[in-house]
Structure formats: C-alpha cells, structure tokens
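Researcher: Quick one. four chains, 306 residues in total.
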Amino acid sequence: MPLASERDASLREFAGYTMKRAFHVIQSDVNRVLEPLGLRMVSFSALVVIADNPGLRQSELAETLMIERPNLVLVLDTLERMGLITRNVAPEDRRALAIEPTAEGRRLCEAAKEEVRRHDRRMTQGLDECERADLIAALRRIESATAREENDG
Amino acid sequence: MPLASERDASLREFAGYTMKRAFHVIQSDVNRVLEPLGLRMVSFSALVVIADNPGLRQSELAETLMIERPNLVLVLDTLERMGLITRNVAPEDRRALAIEPTAEGRRLCEAAKEEVRRHDRRMTQGLDECERADLIAALRRIESATAREENDG
DNA sequence: TTTGAACTGTTACCATCTATAACCATTATT
DNA sequence: AATAATGGTTATAGATGGTAACAGTTCAAA
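Model:
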C-alpha cells in the first residue's frame, strides 16, 4: 500500500492544491495563537491596518483587505465591542465612518503582531531568509498576475 | 492618501497573510474553471486521488486529502450521483467502502486535470519554471514543518 | 434647484467549508 | 461473550464568502 503522503502525487503538480494545504495549517495555527487575545485572522488583519491608517473608512478598509463590505461589518462590531477601535462619522462625508484605534487597540495590536511574527517564523522554519522572501514575492506575483487578468476581462 | 495596495504594508511581512490573499484568488479562479464540469476544488481533488488509487477507502481518502471524514461524505455523494465513482462494500471488511472511478469518472478527471493545469499555469504566469518549482517546494516544507511540530506537541 | 444616479454602511440571506459529537454496523481484542 | 475500536453516516455548529436590498447622504445633470 502506498504511503498516504504519496496518494495525491498527481495533485502536487498544482501550486493551488499545495497552497491550499499549506494555508490550511497556517490558518489553523494562527487562529490558535490569536484565540487567547480574542482575535481571528481577519480581525487581526483589520486591526493592524486600522492602527497603521487611523481615520481610514470602512469601504477603504474592505478594499485594502480584499473582503466585501458586508462581511467587514461584523468584524468591526467585534473590535468595537472589545474597545479596540471607534467608528466616527466623517465630518466631510456624513455617510462614511472613519475608524480609529483606541490606546488599548494599539497595545493589543502590537502584542498580537509579536505573537503572529513568532507564528509566521515557526511556519516557515524550514526555509532560510532568502527562500522565505522568495516565497512571499512569488505569492504576491500570483496575486498581481490575477489582478492583471481581471482588468483585461 | 496612500495607495490601497500599501495600506497593508505591515501585514506583508507575514507569509500567512500574503498566502491567504494569493490562495483566495486561486480558489475563486479554479472554482470558476471547474464549475462547467460540475466540480469544485475539493471534489476535483477527490476525483483525482480516486482515479489514481482505485479501491481506496473513504477514511484513507479523507486522510490523504487532509479533510475530516464527515465532510467527505457529501463530496462523495455528489460524485456518486454524477456517475463518476462507485462505492462498494469491501469484501475483507464489510464496514469499509472501497471507492472506484467509473469510465466516465476517469474521462472527466482527465478533462478537468487539463483545465486545472491551464488554470494553474495562468495563476503562476508571473513565475518562471524554477520559481514555480521553488514555490511548490516551499509550500510543501511549510506543510511538513507543521506536521513535525504537531508530532512533537 | 430639483431630480436621479452613485456611494456608505447595514441587514438579511444563502452557499460553502470545517470541525465535533453521537450513532449504527462491523471488526478486533480480551 | 463482552468490550473496545473502527468505518461510514447524520446532525449540528461556527467561520467564511458573496449578493440583494435598503436608508441616509452626496454628487451630477437637467
């Protein structure tokens, strides 16, 4: 009987399949790491962008994170309820809400970033610095190649 | 105002975040490609492994694809209803079901593989052959690094 | 200036995916 | 024979992702 690890040999030619598996373990691990802080992968990402871009509007945040506006609402509800952010009506456009991190939000953000940094190094421990940089660069090129194609269509 | 593409600069140091975004576009695209064939990413993966390993049991297939057994049931129900596979009680263990691809299943599998191959090349069009191989190798190392850690824990 | 289009956040809703517990039938263990 | 363990299944829950529709606001055109 072949090893379980070889039964999917045909699928290993696809970057997509291997990425799905790698991402699955990363996602599980990062959520495990963030759970004591009351964060998930998405809310963590949102919090980091908010801390880096105070005054950002929800639609801009959604665009930045590449998620749909409706799906962002509950994420921000959670962060707001945790006292990590505030939503304030933008004076120059009363439709929009400008998001601001609270002092507590900034503190938790830094702590979470440190945890996620450790997690990320652990996930890529089989790679040297150069390979790790190449991996991230390759992933970014996949993202932009697709964006290019979407613009053509 | 900073570009939307730069607002998440802090997150780009994390392989996990960049992989999430890259995988998101890959997943969307492959499902779009497979949709005319009546397949999803998971059912495609299952069909390929089944075609390569006739007689495989459901629990072995679940282990191979790294998905939980209950989640495999509906996937196989679909493939069976489409006439692509059969589930037969294993003579030597009447608890187990041995999965076999039908002729039609093998045909569709080959056609789908060809489509997915084109999709995968399109997704990695920004990479040369070497970079593409390095990417897949790096992703596999992430997977196995985590497995190693889980065994330690 | 007023009508209609476009945009912002929101709600409701649906489909997919993943994980867990519990169950029945069967096999293995003792 | 009694008990545990295994294989497939059902039910269920939570997270995720997407669309349609709506109220309030701003913008653009007539």
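Residues 24, 57-59, 69-70, 72-73, 87, 93-97 of chain A lie near DNA strand C (CB under 10 Å from a C1').
Researcher: Thanks, that's what I needed.
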